[in-house]
Amino acid sequence: MASESRRTHHQVTFAVLAAGVAAYALLQSLVTPVLPTIQANLHTTQSTVTWVLTAYLLSASIFTPIMGRIGDMIGKERVFVATLIALAAGSLLAALASSVTVMIVARAIQGVGGGVLPLAFGIIRDEFPREKLNGAIGAIASLSAVGAGLGIVLAGPIVDALDYHWLFWLPMILTIAAAAAAHFLVPESPVRTPGRISWAPALLLSAWLVALLVALSEAPTWGWGSGKVIGLLVAAVLLAAGWVLVELRAATPLIDMTMMRRKAVWTNNLVALLIGVGMYAVFAFLPEFVQTPKAAGYGFGASITQSGLILLPSTVTMFAIGMAAGGLSRRIGAKAVVLLGCLVSVVPMLLLAFAHTHTWELYLATGIMGIGFGLAFAAMSGLIVAAVPPEQTGVASGMNANIRTIGGSIGAALMASIVTANAQPSGLPREAGYTHGFAMLAGAMVIAALAAVVIPASRAGRKVASALPADEPAHPELGVVAGGTLIGDKPE
Q1: How many CB atoms lie within 10 A of CB 357?
Q2: Least buried of 35, 196, 222, 440, by fewest C-beta within 10 Å?
Q3: SS3 of the chain
Q4: Residue 316, C-beta contacts closer than 8 angstroms, at least 6 positions apart
Q5: What is the rounded CA–CA span in Å between residue 102 and residue 18?
Q6: What phi and psi, each to the nearest 5 degrees, are found at residue 423?
Q7: pLDDT at site 473
Q8: pLDDT by residue (tens digit) across 134-147?
Q9: What do you get for the CA distance between the two ends of the chain, in Å?
């Protein structure tokens, strides 16, 4: 191990890590308000362009834990650099894409960049003085959330001043600079964790999810009773069964199925899956709705900037409520807070389904949505920690976060199927498509609330809930999700 005097100062290391995380955080959300523009420029359909988001979510849900584990095995710094290079390569391909197929492949490559978060937290844990750990971890976590929110706001001005290709050129430049700085300035950690990667579970998880998502997104075109849709659904079921069997036998499973059997775990994960369905579906389709020209009989003909601002209240309220939810969990229990968050989340989905007259209704809806999701996200941390042995808290938290991302990919595809089911002669969706889609999301939030009711209550859960908010998570790198939300764990 190099002497302390030879190692890069931790503040320099932090600046480099922050640059990499910032590039990744921006790429999460820059594309969201611009999906209609990408659809028009690449001459594709609304259901197909949704895969620009879905492919990223799928890839990130697989590669976030994999890249973190590889970093523990062979060195966090070199894997951090490799992850940034993959992120830059995906950005380059996306900037040059002349077809939606190439764009989708590029976004899947960008999903590898999900590894920057667990790797950055791991490097901080290894390199920073103990008294500086909490502040650095909190700053990087906040940066990922703020960066994702800024991406929604910045997308419009960037497209107006340049064009949508610069949504990828600018982060690519930042990513390349961060990769070079990381290579030369970030010290390689001497900490290694022996182990290996089980690739079969990752491949099977990808396979059954792709089969399911293709069936859901293409069913309106092919027909729900068509051989292709039925065949894909059957394949998804068989591949999912094979995935579960392989996970049960794997020495290092991607998702621990033994842990999944615990009632407190699977109920929380079901809530996380359904919240993911709602959150990402809104992020993907609300901009499409508000950008629809008024000539269609609905919509607001909003610009990209305006549609991004409509989503901004959800980011602000989610962050604020997440900071304050700990006190509420101490008073009424984490289970009650999750249930409250799910019930609150029904309201914005109903507003989005039926309140289509004024933009203030949409601002109100997204603000309430942030409150509901913020409550649920924050409280699930304590419940997950209370549900598993201390040595499994990090893995359980990371699993819960990844399941939420998987829910997001399913929600985006399902919403695309409903919204585009009966298009107008102009090719635009009918207003009823959005009404039915957002009403479906309200139903998903009701089911999430029912799942929250089934979460077992325990005194341990109250004790953990009361203790959690007072301290920073010991291993937050194990609880990141592609959408920028963080779930941590207590020290082992």
Answers
A1: 9
A2: 196
A3: CCCCCCCCCHHHHHHHHHHHHHHHHHHHHCCHHHHHHHHHHCCCCHHHHCHHHHHHHHHHHHHHHHHHHHHHHHCHHHHHHHHHHHHHHHHHHHHHCCCHHHHHHHHHHHHHHHHHHHHHHHHHHHHCCHHHHHHHHHHHHHHHHHHHHHHHHHHHHHHHHCCCCHHHHHHHHHHHHHHHHHHHHCCCCCCCCCCCCCHHHHHHHHHHHHHHHHHHHHHHHHCCCCHHHHHHHHHHHHHHHHHHHHHHHCCCCCCCHHHHCCHHHHHHHHHHHHHHHHHHHHHHHHHHHHHCCHHHCCCCCCCHHHHHHHHHHHHHHHHHHHHHHHHHHHHHCHHHHHHHHHHHHHHHHHHHHHCCCCHHHHHHHHHHHHHHHHHHHHHHHHHHHHHCCHHHHHHHHHHHHHHHHHHHHHHHHHHHHHHCCCECCCCCECHHHHHHHHHHHHHHHHHHHHHHHHCCCCHHHHHHHHHHHHCCCCCHHHHECCCCCECCCCCC
A4: 149, 367, 370
A5: 29
A6: -80, 155
A7: 41
A8: 667 767 766 666 67
A9: 25
At residue 437, the pLDDT reads: 94
**CA-wise closest residue to 83 among 246, 352, 91:** 91
- From CA 326, how far away is CA 339, in angstroms rounded? 15
* 405/422 Cα distance (integer angstroms): 28
Which tokens go with 443?
């139903």
| Tokens 């959800």 found at | 314
The encoded tokens of residue 289 equal 């709705």
Please tell me the distance from the alpha carbon of residue 133 to that of residue 177, in angstroms, as a whole number: 25
Gap between the Cα atoms of 394 and 398, Å rounded = 6
Residue with tokens 């006190």: 327
Tokens of 348: 């914005």
* C-alpha to C-alpha distances, 282 to 197, 259, 348, 353, 415, nearest whole angstrom: 34, 30, 10, 11, 9
The torsion defined by the Cα of 213, 217, 219 and 220, in degrees rounded to 10, comes to: 170
The two structure tokens encoding residue 214 = 């293709």
Question: Which residue stretches of the chain have pLDDT < 70?
Answer: 1-8, 133-135, 138, 141-146, 148, 191, 193-195, 323, 326, 381, 385, 390-395, 397-398, 458-492
- Residues listed for the chain: 492
Cβ of 324: how many Cβ atoms within 10 Å? Answer: 12
What is the rounded distance in angstroms from the CA atom of residue 8 to the CA atom of residue 225?
61
- Crossing angle of helices 393-419 and 199-222, in 10° steps, is 20
Determine contact, residues 123/13, Cβ cutoff 8 Å. yes
List C-alpha distances in Å: 32 to 193, 276, 314.
37, 15, 14
CA distance 33 to 164: 11
Residue 448: φ, ψ to 5°: -60, -40
Instruction: Tell me what pLDDT residue 134 has.
Output: 64
Q: What is the dihedral of CA 305, 308, 310, 312, to 10 degrees?
A: -130
d(CA 14, CA 3): 19
Q: For the CA atoms of the chain, what is the radius of gyration?
A: 21
